[in-house]
Please model this.
Amino acid sequence: MQATDAVFYVAILIMSVVIHEISHGFMAEYFGDRTARNAGRLTLNPLKHLDLFGSIILPAVLYFSSGFVVGWAKPVPYNPDNLTDRKWGTIAVASAGIIANICIAILFGLILRFSVGFNVPAGFNFIISSIVVINLALAIFNLVPIPPLDGSKILFEILPESFYFIVRALEQYSLVFLIIFVVFLSNYLFPVMAFLYHIITGLPI
Model:
């Protein structure tokens, strides 16, 4: 990857995780919780959202080890006690970032699909393709049910109380499970991403 391409790639990743996070905040506000707004986190300013490990260190490690680059920003705060419907509000808040990334991937994927054959500026396909890839990767990665990823919040609300031991184990050893997944299993997400990329754009990744 050339230096200029890398700069675009990092910029797209940062803005994608920012949109992911503020989507959580707006959904929480829709369900009655203004914590994110009061904390000044409903903004596209990346400096308000960047996380040293999730936004910089992890993407760099993944890029150089596997080429499958994902990350996260600082979680947008919300108070589940303020939600008008705690269970479904929590699921909606957790799902909002994933849905936002999927919508972005579909929008730019369709742009890429219908731009084939047109005389587009140099670098256009790389930028649009990177937007699709990064947002698909973020959506898929965040569906993994390991805290602090969104998939865990969705799973915990769906599981009956009799499965509380699973919730407790995942929360207690979340960092261990997450590191194991990132190091040994994250490559298995690539075929899923490649399949969805092809479905949306009609092109190989």
